[in-house]
Every structure is written in C-alpha cells, then in structure tokens.
Amino acid sequence: MERPLTQHITFPPLGLRQYEAVGGYQAARKAIRHMTPPEVTALVKESNLKGRGGAGFSTGMKWSFVPMDVSGPKYLVANADEMEPGTFKDRWLLEGNPHQLIEGMIVSAFAIQATESFVFLRWAYKAAAEEIRKAIQEAYDAGYLGKNILGSDYSLDMHLHTGVGRYMCGEETALLNSLEGKRATPRAKPPFPQVSGLFGKPTIVNNVETLSYIPHIVNKGAAWFQSLSHTADGGTKIYGVSGKVNKPGAWELPMGVTMRELIEEHAGGMKNGYRFRGVLPGGASTDFLVEEHMDVKMDFAGVAAAGSRLGTGTMVVLDDQTCPVGFVHNLEHFFAQESCGFCTPCREGLPWTEKLLWAIEQGQGREEDLALLASHATLLGPGNTFCALAPGAMEPLQSALKYFRDDFERHIKEQKCPYGDHIH
Amino acid sequence: MATIYIDNKAYTVKDGRNLLEVCLQLGINLPYFCWHPSLGSVGACRQCAIKVFKDEDDKKGRIMMSCMEPVRDNVRISVDDSEAAAFREHVIGWLMTNHPHDCAVCDEGGSCHLQDMTVMTGHSYRDYRFTKRTYRNQDLGPFLNHEMNRCIQCYRCVRFYKDYAGGKDLDVFAAHNHVYFGRQQPGRLENEFSGNLAEVCPTGVFTDKTLKSHYTRKWDMTYAPSVCQGCSLGCNTVAGERYGSIRQITSRYNGEVNGYFLCDRGRYGYEFVNSPQRIHQPAIRPHHNGTPSSDWIVAQAADKLRNGKAIGIGSPRASLESNFALRQLVGADHFYIGMSDMEHDHTALALKILRDGPVRTPSLHEVEKADMVLILGEDLTNTAPMLALAVRQAVRQEPMQDAIQTVHIAEWQDAAVREAMQDKKGPLFILHTFPTKLDELAARTQRGAPDNLARIAFAVSHALGAEIPAVNGLNDEERELVKEIVQALEAAERPLVISGYGSGNDAYMKAAANITWALHKKGKQPMLSLTVPECNSLGLEMLGGHRLDSALDVLRHGDADTLVILENDLYRRADKHIVDEMFRLAKEVIVVDHLYNPTAERATLILPAGTFAEADGTIVNNEGRAQRYYQVYVPKDQVQESWRWFLQIAEKAGIPRLNGLQNLDDIVWAMTVAVPALESIQELAPAADFRMAGQKIPREPHRYSGRTAMLANENVSEPKPPEDVDTPLSFTMEGFRGEPPAPLIPFFWSPGWNSVQSVNKFQSEIGGALHGGDPGKRLLEAHVNGRIPFFTEAPEPFVPMPGHVHLMPIYHIFGSDELSMHTSGIAGGAPEPFVIYLNPEDLHQWGASPGTWVNFEVDDHPYTMAVEANNWLPRGIAALNAGIRGAEVVDMPQCIRFSNVRTETI
Amino acid sequence: MLTTSEKEQIEQEIRQVPVKKAACIEALKIVQQHRRWVSDEGIRDVADILEMSPEEVDSVATFYNLIFRQPVGRHIILLCDSISCYVMGFRDLHRQLVNLLGIQYGQTTPDGRFTLLPNPCLGTCDHAPALMVDQDLYRDLAPDVLENILAKYT
Ligand SMILES: Cc1cc2nc3c(=O)[nH]c(=O)nc-3n(C[C@H](O)[C@H](O)[C@H](O)COP(=O)(O)O)c2cc1C
Ligand code: SF4
Ligand code: FES
Description:
The complex is a heterotrimer of chains A (424), B (906) and C (154).
Chain A: H1 16-21, H2 26-34, H3 37-47, H4 59-64, E1 75-80, H5 89-96, H6 98-112, E2 116-121, H7 126-141, E3 157-162, H8 172-179, E4 203-207, H9 208-220, H10 222-227, E5 236-242, E6 249-254, H11 259-266, E7 276-280, H12 300-305, E8 314-319, H13 324-338, H14 344-361, H15 367-379, H16 389-403, H17 405-414
Parallel strand pairs in A: 1-2, 1-4, 2-3, 5-8
Antiparallel strand pairs in A: 5-6, 7-8
Helix pairs in contact in A: 2-6, 2-9, 3-6, 5-7, 6-9, 13-14, 13-16, 14-15, 15-16
Chain B: E1 2-6, E2 9-13, H1 19-25, E3 49-53, E4 62-65, E5 76-78, H2 82-98, H3 113-121, E6 144-146, H4 156-164, E7 171-173, E8 180-182, H5 197-200, E9 206-208, H6 209-212, E10 222-227, E11 236-242, E12 245-251, H7 264-268, E13 283-284, H8 294-307, E14 310-313, H9 320-330, E15 335-336, H10 341-356, H11 364-368, E16 372-376, H12 380-383, H13 385-407, H14 414-421, E17 428-431, E18 444-446, H15 450-463, H16 476-491, E19 495-499, H17 506-521, E20 527-530, H18 537-543, H19 548-556, E21 562-566, H20 576-585, E22 588-593, H21 598-601, E23 605-608, E24 617-620, E25 625-629, H22 642-653, H23 664-674, E26 697-698, E27 729-730, E28 777-778, E29 805-810, H24 824-827, E30 835-838, H25 840-845, E31 852-858, E32 861-869, E33 877-881, E34 894-905
Parallel strand pairs in B: 1-5, 14-15, 14-21, 16-17, 16-19, 17-18, 19-20, 21-22, 22-23, 26-27, 29-33, 30-32
Antiparallel strand pairs in B: 1-2, 3-4, 3-5, 6-9, 7-8, 10-11, 11-12, 13-23, 24-25, 25-28, 29-34, 30-33, 31-32, 31-34
Helix pairs in contact in B: 2-3, 8-22, 9-22, 10-17, 10-18, 13-14, 15-16, 15-17, 19-20
Chain C: H1 4-16, H2 24-35, H3 40-50, H4 54-61, E1 75-80, H5 83-87, H6 90-101, E2 114-119, E3 131-133, E4 136-138, H7 146-151
Helix pairs in contact in C: 1-2, 2-3, 3-4
Bound molecules: flavin mononucleotide (FMN), iron/sulfur cluster and FE2/S2 (inorganic) cluster.
Iron/sulfur cluster (SF4) is lined by residues 32-35, 41, 43-48, 65, 67 of chain B.
EC number (chain A): 7.1.1.-
Keywords (chain A): 4Fe-4S, Flavoprotein, FMN, Iron, Iron-sulfur, Metal-binding, NAD, Quinone, Translocase
Protein name (chain A): NADH-quinone oxidoreductase subunit F
C-alpha cells in the first residue's frame, strides 16, 4: 500500500539532501521549470484533492479563484494551527517531514504566483518549530526559496510564524488577522481570502496535510492520486484514533477505509474492560457516530451520509465508562473558552450551553434543560453565527442528545451523574 | 433599481444597499445593533436575521443577516418567518444573560435601543438561570459614564471611536464572553468626538455624564430643535430642558450638515445656559434698589436712546434677528459689526469669495465625498471640529472606491472595505504652522511661517493657471511640494480646498480661492470650504455694519455717547485698552446679554437676554446655510430674546423702523425686505400659524410626567402652559402626535423606537435626507458665470525681524470658545492662559527660559505672559493660546517685541 | 524601558512586515521571552516602538491566552484539559498537581517556581494525557510520575 505522505517520515526528519535523495524537490523543479501556474492549478483540480483542514473544499478550485492579473503581493499560508481537540495529524507531518510541506508550499505558491508564504504554527509545537525553521533555511541555501528559484523568474519568501494561543487562529480568516498582528477574530466572506486576504491581498490558506500532498500529485499525476483511494475522494488520508483503545495513533490509509477497520485493526480495538459507545469521527466539532456506523466509509461523502463530517479524520472514541454528559461538557467548555467574542450567539450561547451541561453533570439538571440544549444546537447552526466555530461546537452536542439521550435524562432524574463523575 | 420580495410582497428598491437598510426604509421594524448607517455593517450582533429564499419554490430558506446581504434583483426574503423571528428573539435572550436588568436606575432607560429591540423581538421570558459576569468600570473623564455590565458587545463604540473618529484610547480587550470595552487605564477619553459614544452605544454603557449631574428621563424633557453655537459649522442639535435648566444636548440628524454626530464642544458646551453667572433680571447702574420691572427698564432704555446719540454693536454669536433688530433700533448707519477688525476682515473676505466666486462651498456631507483635500493654515479639529471629522471620511474616499472595485464589495461592508484598503489614504495635504490631529492622515504636511506656506499655495494656484505672477524664490523642496499638490488636485474628481480664520492670515484664503477658481476655469468641479470664527459670523457679515475700530473714533469725536451692545463681550474683541477707552467715553452703556462678563460689568443698563435655549433665532453657518433654532422653554424671570427687548424699546421710543413688529415672523419678514440677500430665510420653516391637523407641535413627549406636581411646592394649582406666539411649537405635551416637518422636529421618537435610533423613521432614505428635505437654506451659491479677479498679491517671504516675533493664535476646541468654557469638563480640558510658545532658539536669544515671564507691548500697551519652548515653531514665530478665559486679548497676528524678560518662573 | 536586545529583535520583526502594527504579536512575544510576562509598562513600550496606542496593543495582548499580562512563575505548566486527555484522565493529573504545588489554575507557587494553567489540546491525543512544562512535552502521563517531572525544574 502506498503511503506517499508518511513514507519518508523519520525522527529526526530528513535533511534537505536526504529528502532530495528520496525524490524530494523534484516536483518543485518540474512545476517551476516545465509547467505554467495554470497548469499546476489545473492538475490539482483534476486530482480532486479536497482540503484536509476540515471543510473538504476542492483545493484546485480554491486556487483558481485567485485573480492572476492583479499587481502587488500575493500570499500562501500553511495552516499549521492544529488546535481542534482530538487532532494530532499535522504534528506528525510537521515534525516528521518538514521539507515535504515546504516543497508543497513552493509548488502551491508558484501555482497562484504568490510572492510570500507563511507557516502559521501553533505555539505548543516546539519541536516542529525547530525542524521547520531549519528546513526553511536549508531550502533558502539550496535555492528553492528566495530570489529566482532554480534559475527561473519566480521568487518566493517563506516565514515561520508561531502563535500565542487561541483555537480561533485556525479559522482561516482569523488566522490572517492574527498574521497581521491583530486579534484573531474572523472576517466576513465574501470577500474570500483568495481575493482579499492577508493585508487585503489575494491569499490562499491550506492545511498542512493538503499542502504536503501537492508534490506527490505533481510528480505522479491526477490519475495516480485517484487510484490511491477506495472512493471518489482521491488519495490517502491521515487517520487517527485516541481514547480508550489499545493502540492509539495515526496512520496514512486509503481514503475511504471503514471506521471498523480503523478502530478494530489499526487502533487495536477497545482496551480491556471498555466498550465502544461512540466516536467523534473527525475532531471535536463533528457529530458523534455510534456502533451502527462502524462500516461507514471514512471519506467526505460517506461520513456526511452517516450524519457527521470527516473533519480532520482524527477520531476520539467515547467508551462506556466515560460519562457522555461530562464528555460533551468538556467539549463545550473548550468551545466557550475559545469563542473569539465577536458574534452574539457564540459568545453568549456557548457559555450557557456549558453551564447547562455542568448543571446536569453536577446533578442540578432540570427537565427543561434538554429542550434548551436542543434549541441551542439548532440556533447556533451554520449561517446563524459569524463563523463556523459555534456550528462546529453544536455538532457533538446535537448528536449526543440524539444518541445518548438516556444518559442525559438519567442525570436529571437521579440528580447525579450515574458514572460517578463530576466536573472539575 | 431592483425588485425584491419581502414576505411575498414586491418592492422596487435602490441597488447597492443592504437588506437591513432597505427593510428599515420601507418602514419594516427589523431589529439590529451593530449596524449603523454611518459605520456600515460587520455582522457581529446577529440581530437582524431574516430568511432568504433561493427562489419561489424554496419554502425552507436560510437564515441570513440582512445587514450583510446586498439587494439583488428578484431576491425573496421573509422578515416574519417564524424561524427568523425566533432566532431574533433568542439573540436578545443571549444578550440578556449577562445584562444587569437595571433599567430602573440606568440613564439610558426610556431612550434605550436595547429596550426597544427587546420589546420588538418579543423577548420577555428569562430562561437563563446562572450567574452573570460582572466588570469593573472606568472613570473616563467628565463627559462619559462607563457601566460595562450593560454591554451587549455590539462593537459599535470601538468602530465609531477608532475607525470613524480616529480615536486611539478606546479599544476592546480580552476574548470570548469576557470582552471589555474601555481604556487601557482609567482616564479622560482623548478624542474630541467621544460624546457620540452616548448615542452610538445602543444601551447604557456610555452615557452622558453631564446629564447624570441633573438627570432627567427622555420622556420628561421639553425639547426644541436647535443649532449648535460652538463654532461656525452650525451642527443641528436637540436641546432638552426640565425645571428651567438645560439637561442635555444630542445630535439632531441633518443629512447635509452633521449627520448623526456632534463634537464634544457642541454636545457638552451647554452649561452656560444654567450658569450662576446668568443675567436673570434687568439692572440699572448706579445701583437701583429692587428688581426693576420690564416695562420700567424698557422705558429707561428708550429714554437713553432718545436722549443720547446711540450706536449699536452687534454680535457674531447673536441671531440674525437680534442683530437686525439692533441695527433697526439705532439705524443702519449707527450699527457696528461686533467682531474684531481682524475677524471682520476675514469674514468679509470669506463672504466675498463665496458669494462672488465661481466655486461652490460644500456642506459637511459633501466634504465627506471629496477625493482630495488641501488644508491651508487650519487646525480643523480645533477651529471647526466636525469638518475635521468629515475630512477623516473624505480621506477614505479614493482608496475605498478602489477597493470596492477590485474586491467587488459594497461600501457598507465595513470590515471588508477596511481590510482591502489597509492603511491607504486619499491625498490630503496640510500646510500649517502647527502640527494638527489630521496630520496622521496626510500624504504631506508642511510647516513654516504662515506667509511662507501661503506662498506655496499661491504657487500652486499659479501652476494651475491662476492669472497671477509667478511666486519666485521657493526652494527645491517647496517646488516639489507644489508639483505634488498640483498633480493631486488635477487628478481628483472632487478636490476640496479648506482654509479659514485659524492662522489669522488672509493670504491662505486668497490662495485657496485662487486654487479652486483656477481649477474651475479648467472645467473641474472643485469645492472650497472656509471657516469663520463664530456661529453667526457669516450672517452678521451679510447683514453688514461698520468696523468696530471706527466706533471708537465716533465716540472720540463725540458723534456718539450711548452704546447698545448685543450679546458681546467687547473685551474678547479688542485690546483691553481700547475697550476701556470706549466705555470711558460712552455716557450710557446698554448691554443685552445672558452672562455677566467684563463688558456687562461696565454697563449702565443691563437687559437679560435669552440664550439659544430661551430664544428663537436664525444663524448662518460657514457654508452660508441659514438655520433656525427654537426656544426650548420659557425662562423664569425677565429673560427674553434680545430682539424682543429691542422691539419693545423701539416701540417705547417711537422708532419707526421697527414699527408694528411683534413676533419672530414679523421680524424675519422685515429683515428679508431690508436685506434681500436674506430673502430665503422666510422659507426656513413654517410660520407661527402653521398647524398640523389643526394642532401645534408639542415640545414634550406625550409621556411627559409630573406636570401637575412638579411645581406644586410653589403653587398648588397647575399654571396655564405658556403660549408660543413665535412658532408652531407648543410648550406642552398636547398637540399633533405625528411626524412634524423636518425643521420643526423637537425630538426623534416613533412608536417602538424610543432611542435616538428612531431617526430612521424620519428619513426618506436611510442615512439620507429627512422627509421633505434636510432643514436649512443655503443663502450663497457659487456664482457660476461670475468672474472675480484672482488675488494677485502673494505675501512676501517671512523673514524674522530682529528684535521682534510674529505672534499668531493657536485655537483649542476646549478653551478658545467663550460660552462652552462654562462647562467644567470643557474648562478642565483647556490649556493655560497667558502662555506664549517660542522656538527654543528664539527663547534662548531672548534670554528667557521655559516658564519665565516676559513683557511686551502692542500699540504701546503692556502685556505680561509666560513663555514656553516649542520645537515645531519656526524662528521668529510665537504662538499664543487664543481666546482662553482669563487671558487678555491680543489682536493676532501681531508683530511684538519683548521689552522685559524676567527670570522668576511661574 | 525595552532593553537594547529587545529593541533590536523587535526592529528585526518590523522589517519583515508591510506595516509596523503587523509586528505587534511578535513584539509581545519578544518582551515576554525576556521578562516572562508583559507588564503595563511593557505594553506602553511596545506601543511606542510600533507607533500604536497602548489600547491597541493591549487589545491584542489580552486576546491571546499565551501572552501573560500578570506575573508568572519561572516555569509554566500547561496541562491539557481537552477531550482525549479528559477521557484518558487528565483530572487525576490535575488533582495531583494541585496537591504537589498547592495552587489552583492561574496561580503561581509562593516561591515563584511554577504557574499552573489549563491548556486546550496539545495535539498529542494518541499519547494522552499530556502536559507541557515550558518547552518540554510530557506524554502518556500518570499522576505518580509528576513529582519527578517537577523536580527537574528549579
Ligand atoms: C474554528 C475553526 C478552527 C479551525 N482550525 C483549523 C486548523 O487548526 N487547521 C486547519 O488546517 N484548518 C482549520 N480550520 C479550517 C480552516 O478555516 C480552513 O478551512 C482550512 O485551513 C483550509 O485548508 P484546506 O482547504 O487545505 O482544508 C478551522 C476552522 C474553524 C472554523
Ligand atoms: S450583525 Fe447585523 S447582523 Fe447584525 S445587526 Fe448587526 S446588524 Fe445585523
Ligand atoms: S486532548 Fe489532550 S492532547 Fe489532545
């Protein structure tokens, strides 16, 4: 089985020469020397690569919205903020093969004719920061970055920016504000960053995993990319599982493996003494899936059909000894804390939700609380809030109310947590 | 135009707007918070949700924020949709989770947009059962009270303060539901437009602190449409009264003038009306026992007029009517313009340029649309504050239009527009001796002696083709600047040149005229804005009169022995020694004014005049716009309009020029007959006999309370409400309940809209004109075919004269204006009097050091002041804080010589 | 007052960005690196060098949870309190830390050695529960190893 993204991951990662020795920077050479920017974009579009940052939007399509005839700078940003709870896939790529990301960024930047690029890295990834800093310097020294890359007219600078906290920085427009030195509040779309992004200039923001794929697509083509996958969504995907399983971890697998395969084979099944109750299939802001969904194909369409989202593809398993109310409370506590405070429903609605869950978990729930929670789940839905943070926050809540309703009701009836849990 | 369907009804509406504006304009009550017509949309509060449907078959639709959605042809939306309505109700529910529910003790109560929106959405039941978060408040200085617990985080305050007004010291802190709006440390808000926060804030976080000191609910005040007296711009205000004192000034929307806003001088400078220094009763000197009756005193005055040789001195801070009445009382030949000769020359020049020149002077609204601005010798923030605010908006024009086109967004998409524009600014050039607050926006600023800067401006006009001799002797840098300015002027579609009285140097105005006239000749459409010193300077100038210094000659020659002084402290107009001599020479001094001041101290007869709050009158702003202000309440005691005193004296004295005139309409009519240039003043507002549905327009809201009880400590039977013989307004709560004509709107209120946000119900287009057109009449229009010769006399280069300095004024928004200084918060922001600033090298050369006293002479009269060093002053130029209370008046500019430098410090 | 080296580092960042303000976060990070936290004076100093107002700078500083506007200890413990660590028992770690240090979240030990803060997901969920002390990440933790970990920091 091919694992293009992870095959060359090592700790410490490959240096530039080693990376070149395994075929690295061939895609950069090919694109810059032998392809036009529109050709690169067309190829990526043809491959049907979908963004790995959570929303799953076609990457080639996104690039094609960048106006090519405007003067002034353009920007490419690698979104390496990875703060979605339960998500740990980008860290692997960042620490294990930074040159792959940098090459992907060079090719992508070339496609949109960006003049400057940034890696927006979250604060906690200290090791990754070191590796990336080193790798960028190596790429400059080797002439892959800087003026007249590989003797062409194309020039590109690259910077590493490390954040100072806040989940919101992962939302692409908030990320741009943060890169501009401002508060990480999101921006209204339209205008999309492709047209007015960083410093008001055309900008593409892509996830680390998305960008790391670009060199491989350029090297091997769209058909190859398609062939890697079990489904219409091409390529492989980094999946991960955490929670009470035997072998928590992350694996690169063909797009569309089933949840069962992931949990039972790769993660080694549930730990002794624990039973599976449900799973967040793609990070904290996705709907729970449960036992009946075990055979769902883990691609964008498959998970959506089951009522959730592929999200980041890193799953968090809920076992039978963890209180679902406490579990959801933990998530809503996170989201309420991380709300940027710009729009009303999110800023005020999330703390309210958190308090309701807290009350229920503490044995102070009231019957009407479930209706209030349910109404929040719809009222904070997509379009009602300014950005996708609050709608994301409501996904685990609304599905928990559906699948674990008994648990909620028992808490309220018994005025205590049946799991003996309390919040802390 | 586009057709849109709202709840299945078709409407034809204007393109380019957002759906919230459109709904409001159609009279649909759609709640909102973060949107503001002048600030645009950002989509933060989520209150204005509606349903938008894809097409006729789409029954489900999607909730969207109406403020963020542009009008699209054939779009189908629903406001009534139950999901949208439920969502809107929940938005209030969320906002209320932390709101303290302290309406009963909140200053905003009764004029609160949050209350209105709560009722509008039907939110009445509280589901939230947890604790609220609480904040610590800050002391923000004398103008605004801060109560952060009431905050609903609409972000309007920072958007107004920072983005719109350029303030630096207010911001949003922290994140999630801890966001906090305030200063980094407690302290006085520095921006000159801070008071607007009280109106911009939709709830009670920022409230008017001066109102708090004599608090009255909105429904308990008596109101009148008024016009600010703080500077020459004539911003429209609403003045509210209870118990015989003015409680609050708010902005009265006028789409052409001040829009939604006011400066802090205008908003807070009203306390003089309530001042203990008010003149309430007539007085006669030497002292007369008891309070003289009005009849008796009028007879006394009439006697003095009949027996003496009287001359009248008018006032640029008094109404046209009062000035005219005085002029008629003493005869036009004996009427003197009550401005200093400098002010008079300046205003006369401005009038001539605007009246006879071919270039239009813009309204403030038009200023906002200028795409290039050149400011000559003015620190607008301090001489014409709202003009500075308008320039701030103008500077956005060019990059904004650019951004809108490249990014394909609408102007109201505020955050997106600002992002696409970044820090780009349209061309603004400022030539002024001192740094100004607008410098931060300028492409280029040039400092120097006024004459030298004016020469640059003359050179610009020459380069543009003004028929004047070339200005020789400019250095390379100056020539480069000339070139830059010329290019920017020529590239602009709506260039604006601003000048005025701020440097006391007429060369600036002449150059400004030259520049715009030259552009006009080239077929361009330039605008020319000139500031004048006071609220009615231009009106007084249009009325005409003799120079003030000639009054002294007349007295000296014995051709006059009686002075009638209208609302004017002559000690602010001329050198103390001159005024002292005038009073020495005059046998009788009749003063009609509202505050005791040094001039009133010299009066032999004093008549108490009404302020803007107790009088009706008309004033003419710097744009030549005549505007009417209305009496707010009937004062106790014997205070009345100055013009009314003059009518009564004239009648008693049998002076035929005012024969038969009884009321405001009469005097307005007489004035337009006598002064044809003022003719259209008759059309300013409906006459006194105007009625709506047979009724007068009430000055009091129909919920006005306590009328029967409020004066019960004085008299148990409720007095008959006073009658207003001058206007269609009544002093009661009874009368017509609907919408009055725009010039007569005493306060903005509409069912369900108790706060100032109700203005949208009075506009024909959101952010546009009031129904029936914005009030005011322009008396001056550009003389399109008129030809007036260019001003050819560029000043000579300034060369410091050995042993002398050139003294020029510095104006201060807080301090330079006479009346507003009676507000303690304004006085607290004023600079020290008696301080002269000098270039440090000059200081050294004079043997002075910062803080030492110097003596100097003007026309043989000695002055003593302290000196301070100031690095930005050119050699040979000195500056003196102008108009500060307590300081002796020095006519400026003026060439002075220090005669004695003392070494002790202050 | 900023030290020369702080100033130089900030100037260096300013050169990287099209407008001075854009270096705001970097400047705050630099000050914090040197002083562990950013005082009111630090805010004013950053404002001066970036030609911003203290309000503007503090608006940014207070938004981000890893810019410290209050004094912190010599070592910062960031305990992951997000979902995988919740499932895997971070609460036991927390209890143990409170026992060992005698402080709650947001507090600093009286000897100024540690400040304890909760932190969202550290991106190492397959090795939950986890925490960071300064630059060092600790994974697959159990309460009984904490004492040894803390001992490394003086
Ligand atoms: C609250 C929030 C947080 C997000 N965090 C991340 C993140 O940490 N990393 C990421 O790649 N995308 C994140 N996203 C998604 C980004 O906004 C954006 O869609 C993505 O970076 C685009 O990259 P892609 O097209 O390669 O998927 C987040 C979105 C939201 C609403
Ligand atoms: S955000 Fe819009 S959405 Fe909202 S009111 Fe404010 S006004 Fe509207
Ligand atoms: S939840 Fe703790 S590391 Fe992810």
